[in-house]
Amino acid sequence: MKQDAPTEAAPPPLTSRGESTRERILQSAAGVLAEHGYAGSTLNDIAERAGTKAGSLYYYFASREDLIREIMTRGITETLAHVIAAVDALEPSASSQDRLAAAVTAHVRYLLTENDIARAAIRTLGQAPADVEGPAIELHRDYGRYLSTLIDDATADGFLDPAIDGRVLRLLIAGALNWSTAWFRPEGPASVAEIADLAARLATGRIAPAPS
């Protein structure tokens, strides 16, 4: 009689201390990824930042790829949730232009306020192998569809030129927002609030001076 292949036992649940260590590893790995990208991030670098040994990482993650996959999916998931929450917090009377501005503002603030997991997710997109970034790519598309809805609503309400290609506008907005992580410096001439405000004005056509 043919016997079934043995199945691997599920790992025991982590203690609160174990969960804390796992989160510390995630945050440390995100910091390394945000600074060095996929190819430049090693387990030794991650372990050193987390204050542990490289071999210990395998107790919490099956592989380097599993660790990076979780960072990418979590970063995009949390960014989108933060943006949606900011838009939903507006008064019901808010215009579609206000909703688009709120989304852009929330995105910039979230990326630039020391959120390594969000920054790492953006930095690593397009660098990791397909099996690593695949789930994050799908989430990124969900985000794109949400942003497209906001752009379409603002266009339909007359706040944006209907002759503009909405897809191209979405790609330009998302690219500009995400690229801000590459050049922003906390000690630079513009604050996060100023950058977020300018990005929102650009995205919603409010860049012209107020009439005198």
Describe the overall structure.
- The chain has 212 residues and is mainly alpha-helical.
- 65% of the residues lie in helices and 0% in strands.
- It contains eight helices and no strands.
- The protein has helices at 16-36, 43-50, 64-88, 96-112, 116-124, 130-156, 166-183, 192-204.
- α4 runs antiparallel to α6.
- The protein is elongated.
- Mean pLDDT is 89; it is low at 5-10.
**Helicity, in percent?**
55-70%
Q: Report the mean per-residue pLDDT as an integer.
A: 89
Computed CA radius of gyration, to the nearest angstrom: 21 Å
How many strands, which pairing sense, and closed or not: the largest β-sheet? none
Following the backbone from N to C, one meets helices and strands in this order, namely HHHHHHHH
Q: How many alpha or pi helices? A: 8
Secondary-structure class? mainly alpha
Shape: elongated
Could you tell me the strand content as a percent range? under 5%
Low-confidence stretches: 5-10
Let me know the number of strands: 0
In terms of quaternary structure, the protein is single chain
Could you tell me how far the N terminus lies from the C terminus, measured between alpha carbons in angstroms? Answer: 89 Å
